[in-house]
Each structure stands twice: as structure tokens, then as C-alpha cells.
Amino acid sequence: MVLFVIFCPIVAAILILIGASARKTALATSVLTFVMALLLLASFQKGQRDFQHVTSFSISPEWHLSFTTGLDGLSLAMVLLAAIVTVAAVWFAGRIDKYENAFYACLLLISGGAIGAFASIDLFFFYAFHELALIPTFLLIGIWGSGNRVAAAWKITIYLAIGSFILLLGLILLYQSVPVTSRSFDIRALQAAATGGQISADSQRHIYLLLLTGFGILISLFPFHTWAPEAYAAAPAPAAMLHAGVLKKFGLYGLLRLAIPLLPEGARHWTDLLVVLLLGNIIYVGLVTIAQKRLDWMLGYSSVMHMGYIFLGIASASILGVTGAVVLMFAHGLSIALLFAIAGELRKRADTLTFDELGGLGKVMPFAGLAFGLGAFAAIGLPGFANFAGEIMIFFGAFRNGWDMERFHIFQVATVLGLWGVVISTVYMLRAYRRTFMGALGERLRGRKELADLRPALRLPVTLLVGALLYYGFFPQSFVRMVAPAFRTYLTANKQP
Amino acid sequence: MITAPELEIAVLVLGMAILIVESFATRIDRRFLAFAAIAGLAAVLVASFFVAPGGPPDQATGFWSFYTADRLAIFFKQFALLTTILVLIMMIDYAPVVRDSFPGSSLQAGLGEFFAVPIFTCAGLMYMASAIDFIFIFVSLELVTISFYVLVSFTRRNPATLEAGVKYLVLSALSTAFFVYGITWLFGATGETNLQRITVALTNPSTEHGAALFGMVLVLVALGFKLAAVPFQIWVPDVYQGAPTPVTAYLSVASKAAGFVVLLRVMRPFLMLPQMQRLIVLVALLTLIYGNLAALPQTNLKRLLAYSSIAHAGYLLIGVACFDGAAVTFYLAAYLLMTLLSFAVLVIVAQQTGDQISDFDGLGMRSPFLAFAMLIGMVSLAGVPFTAGFLGKFFIFYAAIAQRQIALVVVGVITVGCGFYYYLKVVRAMYWQPAAKINKIPTSALSRIAISALIVATIWLGVYPQPILDALKR
Predict the structure, then answer these.
(1) Rounded to an integer, what distance in angstroms lies between the CA atom of residue A117 and that of residue B168?
(2) Structural domain contains residue A145
């Protein structure tokens, strides 16, 4: 069943390239994938630590390389996110002028690559599936992008290529750090080796730094973040939805999957560095976001900023913080996809996303205004949305983190500054909402005939995204019960003072 | 059971037979000769899978003291045969260009030799794969080089081709001189030309290591020309650009592969010397940096592929510096597939438009099949997972990390980033840019099959490398 979810989009992409009807096939596939992901969720045994639905094909016995897939709570949450965002992205894509087949094939390849990476238990395929999305992203931005698409496409491709090769070095080093007899690309075998203390503290530090740099570039950790806003501003909306919503979570997922269980000593050693960098994400990028003059750039920067909270949760190494990070990954994926989708629709109609030229769209496009408002509230972290649940867990988890530290230390400073970050995001989100949807209609927009509300069919994906946000906002416990067992072996609950 | 030397004899007989038919049967369509050559080589390729591998070369005497049939040799014989078959297929597509370069002569003048000479090159490459004696290495190397002299300047009415031919002739002759001089020094120091006995002689304390090393360095210089390693790469861009395109493909794959087999074999006696390793690391670093940086501004695809071939020599040299023969061999196999794939598309497209990168503008609209093939070729050369090129780089970097060659790894990662830029430039032209002309590009059935097979093989090796690993290890 897991194999089906992975290969459904990829096979559909090939069929579309061969000549199947693009939009119909893509929509059917994404809905089918979503339904399968829901079935996986329903049949998932919560509270179990091990991977479920495991299937394995041996590729190279001498390298202990095999194509192994399976799900635990963490990867299931990510697969679910990918499936939801794929449906929304394909639904929003609409009619494409040139190379329609290639457009949908690229979207499905990104989605299949992300799902494959999340569901792989084997390091090699975990890495390879993520890279499957690289070339489609390049093509999506280059062919169908807007604005400064050429520079954006080169920048994202070269950043991500170098980031993933650094990551590859880290993975090879990780593979080699285990004694020859127990070398394997299987994450479970590596975890067993790590719990047995077979990875020396010294090599843990090296590997963690490589992984943090490699994943950091992929996640747009400060100061490697400059590719992200530019690429998301130039990308067509569905590509930005999939990339910002799903693919960027790959790096975070990798840190959760590898760094915490396998390299506790490395994580401890580099904690201070990571906290300083993530504050760069929250405070510095947050202030940069306020200064943006265009809606698409503002959204791109805001997605970079929110990575800072997730990093804070991961760095806290407490089960509460880490679980909160996963909740926020899921919630951020949905909310940023919603915001990019609405921004893309606005661009189609208004032909501009500069704040000075927008305004008053709420009267003409009430549903788009409502949807954007809900997405913005979610992104700020208003109670009731899953983002709130994630952020509050992260802040509690980080304030009383899992490390043995003195009473007053860098985490408490970071938590306080992080709370101010919420204020920053309130400022830019509400300003963006006011300047886009309220007030008088922008001068350039007057008399434009194309300004119409979203067509009714598009309400469905919006409802899907908002519904998932609200559901897990009101009932985060069901999500937490699914995810938390994945970390229980490696992290203790918060220490009592 | 077939023995290994019979393979080369069969290839040589095939080549002579084709030449004889060519000169007596003047009426036939010359392309028939190419089909016959492809069929003959394919038969030899099939036969090569049933060859019994020879015993250990240590106590061998007579013929077997300079000829070995180990796994590596058989593998590279198959490699040479496969390359030659694919190049011949490209040559059939290229035939109109050759015909046009002999104005005033009969319709198919010159085509017969164009199809026959590669067969002799192939025999030379196969001998080279088996050679374990310096004299024999030299003789087979010359068979390859001399047939390439003919091929490179085949369309000699074209000034660029003529220039390429002269450059190749002069610099190859120079490298041959280095090679022979190196052999004499080695012979003087050890009294042997057989690689196995040189190894033994080097362990003897009375051997003059300085003289032997000097000879080895001279041999390395000569091999550097064949591999296109910096600082012996200056001939590569001009010759690659000027030579007929199928010959360029042949040169960049077969000649390089043969150079690396010989390098792997002659390095073995010198592996224990640390200064040798440092030298190779230095050459690898220079080659990586030069090849990749110089490729960045290229606008001509043949020239781009020339610099890319220098860059790949750099990655291969990382493998040599880390003593990982299996990684080098796998990389060469991947390199064969992706390079020939790119050249096969180039041969077809260049006849319609030209070989500038801008001539590929809008290929995605004009011929989705060719554009997709080129996409796979470029993506594999850049090293994206699920293609053979990625696994090649993976094994190379694995070896470098295992040996803790930090400098090689750091430079390697940066150059991979460069590679993404210049390979994707081609992808960009094919899909982003609007086409200048919109007519479709005709593709013959045979090249369609060959290109499809190469695409499938590139992806297959990228997902399931075990067959190659098995072929090398058993």
C-alpha cells in the first residue's frame, strides 16, 4: 500500500508524458493518493514505535542496500501532508498554456519524490527520492515562472544541488562511521548501532555538522535562506505550494529522523550554533519580511521565518518540543500552501502583487479574501489552528528543554525572542491582508474585467486545507499520539526541576 | 569454450573482410557495410560473455606473460565492443555529412573506410584491456592512436577538422614519445617490461627507485594526454570540436576508458609509494577545477562536452587516487552510457540546425523524444539520483571519504555544483527557449532504438547497479 502511494504519482507522471490527458489524470491520481493516505492513517496502529507496512527489495547485498519502505507516526504525518497539498496544488493548477503535459508531470514528480523520501527507510532512497524533485522544480520555475524566473531557477537549483551533495557526504560518513560488520543503509539498523554506542562522539560531531549544513540549505536555515523567497516568488503557484509546503519539510524530517536518534552527542555539541542560527531565521528574517513590498516575496520570507520555530523545537531535544515541531511542520505546510494558492490566483487576475498597486480586493473577491484571512491567521498562530498547537508546544518544550543545562541559558533567551517573533508575524500578515483586501480598489485594478472571485470548484481544496488545519487545531492530541512514539526511545519527557 | 584472444582475432578478421568487400563490391550501398560491421561486433559481444577467464598472471609464460584475460580485461573488451557498435550507429546517421565533404567525387566515396577503421580501433582497445606488458601496451595504444589519426581528420575539407587532425597528430606523437622514453627508464631501472615482474623488482632493495619513479612519471604524462588530465588537456577542446561528431564521441569514451584501464594496471606496482598518490591527487584536483570552470562559459555543445570530458577525468582520477578500481570502472560504465546518449542526440540535431547550445532552443517542442533523451543524458552527467551518473559519483565520493581525502571531497562538491549549471544550460535551451524553426526532426528507427536502449540502461544502472558490481567482483 505504501508502494502504491509512492508510485501512483510517478507512474501517472510517466503516463502523462506519454500522452494521457494531463489534468484529468493528475487530478484523479492526486485524489487517489490522498484516499490511500487516509486509508494508511486509518489502518495505522497508534502508539507503536516500529515501522509499519514494511516492504523490502534487496538491491545490493554487499552494500546492504535495499529498497525498503514503511511508515511510523512521523513519516505517516508527512505523507499525509504531501497527499493533501498535492490535491490542492493540482486542483489550483488549472489550464496551462504551453507544455501542459510536462507541467502536470513535473508537479506529480515532485509529489512522488517527496512521498518516496518520507516513506523510505533506506538512507540511499531517502536521499535519492528527494533529488527526484530537483529537475522538475528547475523546469517549473524556468518554463512557467513569472518575474525574475531565470535567476530564481538557477539559484534554487544550484543551492539545492550543493546542499544535497553536502548532505550526501554526511550520509556516506554516517554509513562509514559504523563498524564494517554492521554497515547498512537501513535506518533501523543504524539506529540499533547508535543505541549500542557504535558511533563515536567525534564522528557524531562531524556528521551532525555536515547534515545540519546540508539539510540547512534545503530548509533555508539562516544564512542559507536567500534562494527561498526568490524562487517562491518566481515559481508558478502550484510549484510554490508543493515546494514550500512539502518538499522543504524533507530537511526537517531528515534532522528528526537521523540527527536526533543517531547523533545525540553531535546535536548536543552544536546546539548553541543552531540556536543562534534559528534566531537569525526568526528575528532577522522576520524583520526582513516586514519590509517586503510584494505579496509573493512576503510569503516566501514568512515561510523562511517559520522554519526558525521548527528548528527551535528540534533543537530543544525534549519530546514536547520535538512533537510540537512535527505539528508545526504539518500545519505550516498546509497554511503556506493555502496562502501561495490564493496569491497565485491574485496574480492571475491582477497581474501584479506589489502592495502599492493592490487593495480593496475583499469586495470583489470575498471568498479569496476569506481564504487568505484564514491562512494568515493560521500562519500567525491563532488558537484554533494547528499552528497554534505546534508553536505552544515548541515554546513550552524549548523553555524547559531536554538538555542538562543551568537554570538560565540560551534556550530561555531564544524562547522569549521567539515569542516576539509571533508579534512580528502578526505585523506582516495583518499588514499584507489590509493592503491587499481592504481599503479602496488599487488604481491599476479599476476597470479590470478579470477580477472575479475564485470559481466555485476551487472552494473544495481550500476547504480541505482549512479543514485539516482546524481539525488538528482543535484535536492536536490525535496527531501527537501518532507522532510522539517515534521519539520516545531517544528522548525523555521534560525533566522536573 | 572460447578463449579471449579469439575475440580480437575475430574483430580483426571482420575489419579486413569489410575492407576487402568495400574495395571490390563497388556497387553496393556503403551503409550495408556498417550494418554488417554492427552485426559482426554484436556477435563478438555475445561471444565475449562465454569466455573462460584466464588464470592468475603470476606464473604465466609465453603469450600469457603479456596478455591477461582477467575480469577487468573481459569487462573492458565488452565495453569497447559496445562503444564501437553505438558509434557505428551514430556514423550511419552522420553519413550524409561525410558524403558532402567530398565534393565532386562519386556518391558514397570514403564511406567504406569511415565504417571500417573503427573496427580496427576496437581491436586495439580490446588488446589494450588485456595488456600487462609495457611493449604490448605500447603496440595496442599505437593501433588505437593511428586509427584515430585517420578518423579525426576524416572530413578533411573542413578547415576546423583539418586543424583538429593536425593538433591530435602532433600532440599524440609527442605523448607517444614520452611513453617510450618512460618505458626505457623503467626497463633500465628494473630490467623488465612485464608489470608483474616490475612489481617484484621494485621490492628488491637494489633497484634504483628514483629512476623507476622518473620513468613512471613519464608514462603518466603520456597517459595524461589520453585521459585529458590537466595539464595535458590543451588539445581536447579543439580536437573534440573539429572532429566528426561520432568520432568525438568515440574519442571521449573509448580513448578515455582505455587510458584508465592502462592507468589502473601500471599504477599497481607503484601503489605503495606515497609520493605517487600525492601526485595523482594533485592532478585530480587540477583536472576537476579546470574542466568544470572552463565548461561554465561554453556556448558550443561539442566544446562543452569536451570540457565535461576533462571534468569527468577529474572524478575518475579521484577514484584512481583512492585506489578504488571498482569505483573507476563503474564510473566509466556510467560515463559510456550518458556520453554516448548525449552524442547520439547531438549527431541527429546538429545536422538539422548546428552544434551550438542555442541550436537546441525549443527542442522540447520540435522533438519531445530527442529532448527527453538529452535531458536524461545531461541530468546523468550532472549526477542526479536514479541515473547511472549519480551512482558513479556516489562510489567515487564514497572511496574519497573512506580515504579521508578532504581536499578532493571539498573541491569535488564545488565542481558538482558547477556541473549542474552548465549541464542544465542545455536543458534550459531545450525547454525554456522558443524554437527558431518548428519543423520536426526526423530520426531513423535504428537510432531511435539505440537511444531508447541507452535511456533505459542509464536509468536501470542508476536504480540497480548490482549487475556491474557482480561482473567486476565474481
Answers:
(1) 48
(2) no
CA B6/CA B43 separation, integer angstroms: 13
Q: Mean pLDDT in chain A?
A: 87
Contact B168, B148 (CB under 8 A): yes
CA pair distance B36, B27, nearest whole angstrom? 16
How many residues can be counted in chain A?
497
Q: How much is the average pLDDT of A94-106?
A: 84
Does residue A325 form part of some domain? yes
Q: To probe the interface with B, which of A131, A185, A227 has the most B CB atoms within 10 Å?
A: A131
Q: How far apart are the C-alpha atoms of A186 and B474, rounded to whole Å? A: 25
Which pLDDT does position B438 carry in this prediction? 72
Asked if residue A352 belongs to a domain, the reply is: yes
How many structural domains is chain A composed of?
A: 1
SS3 category, B173: helix
Domain borders along chain B are 1-180+235-265, 304-474
Residue A62 clears pLDDT 90, i.e. is over it: no
Which of A172, A210, A211 would best serve as a mutation to test chain B binding (most B beta carbons within 10 A)? A172
Q: Nearest residue of A to residue B412 by CA position?
A: A165
**pLDDT score of B369 more than 50:** yes
Task: State the pLDDT at residue B54.
Answer: 62
A242 to chain B, closest Cα gap in Å: 20
Round to whole Å and give the CA distance between A90 and A104. 8
Give yes or no for A224 touching B (CB within 8 A): no
B5-31 average pLDDT score: 85
Stronger pLDDT, B317 or A412, i.e. the higher one: B317
Of chain B, the percentage scoring pLDDT greater than 70 comes to: 95
pLDDT computed for residue B144 by the predictor: 92
Asked if A59's CB is within 8 angstroms of B464's CB, the reply is yes
* CA B63/CA B326 separation, integer angstroms: 27
> Given this model, what pLDDT does residue B295 score?
92
- Any idea which of B94-108, B228-242, B271-285, B396-410 has the lowest mean pLDDT? B94-108
pLDDT attached to residue A496:
39
3-state secondary structure chain A: CHHHHHHHHHHHHHHHHHCCCHHHHHHHHHHHHHHHHHHHHHHCCCCCCCCEEEEEEEEEHHHCEEEEEEECHHHHHHHHHHHHHHHHHHHHHCCCCCCHHHHHHHHHHHHHHHHHHHHECEHHHHHHHHHCCHHHHHHHHHHHCCCCHHHHHHHHHHHHHHHHHHHHHHHHHHHHHCCHHHCCCEHHHHHHHHHCCCCCHHHHHHHHHHHHHHHHHHHCCCCCCCHHHHHHHHCCHHHHHHHHHHHCHHHHHHHHHHHHHHCHHHHHHCHHHHHHHHHHHHHHHHHHHHCCCEHHHHHHHHHHHHHHHHHHHHHHCCHHHHHHHHHHHHHHHHHHHHHHHHHHHHHHHHCCCEHHHCCCHHHHCHHHHHHHHHHHHHHHCCCCCHHHHHHHHHHHHHHCCCCCCCCCCHHHHHHHHHHHHHHHHHHHHHHHHHHHHCCCCCHHHCCCCCCCCCCHHHHHHHHHHHHHHHHHHHCHHHHHHHHCHHHHCCCCCCCCC
Confidence (pLDDT) at A198: 82
Position A246 in a domain:
no
**pLDDT tens per residue across span A171-190:** 999 888 888 877 888 888 88
Distance from CA of B396 to the nearest CA of A (A): 11
Smallest CA–CA distance, residue A18 to chain B, in Å, is 10
Look up the domain containing A470 and give its range: 270-486
